[in-house]
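Let us practice reading a record.
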Amino acid sequence: MTITATARAAANRARDLAYVLLSRTPLHPAEDVLLQMVELLDTAGYAFETEDAPVMDGITITNTIPAAAALALMECRALAEDNPATGIAGEVFAYVTAPITGRTAQLPKVNPTSPQLGRQEASLLTRIALAVHDLDATNEPTTRYATLATLVDLHRQLDRLAADATVDNNRPCNRPCNRR
């Protein structure tokens, strides 16, 4: 059995993200959902480590995600989106597969009309970009764990900002006039 470096990196990220979520479960109102996510992330990590990468004409294809891992991560994302009380944004699960796919999380469009919210959005997006860079640059487990924990928090803040911006943008003073 040959485990590719990208699959090993994805397995490490899945397990580290599971530990991040596990550390947040005690006395959490959505503890049962968080524990389901932890189990699914462990399943994904196991799949990355045990399923061989496909080989075509003697060439190992390194940019594919094992089916069991893909299903587990899709279910994690669905659980996060269906249970906002977890405080986990569905986008954070994209960081698990980023070593394989080369794609990170899709960030929501906030589009605030308020300059203050615009500055907050710019700050959060910059901090997320820096954290993603740090995550991609490290193989050290403690740093990877801390960076994933930071990304979970930053995505939660971005989701809150998007909700605040939606409310703020719908205020009468922030809507464009409909003059004829």
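A brief commentary: The first strand starts at residue 55 and ends at 56.
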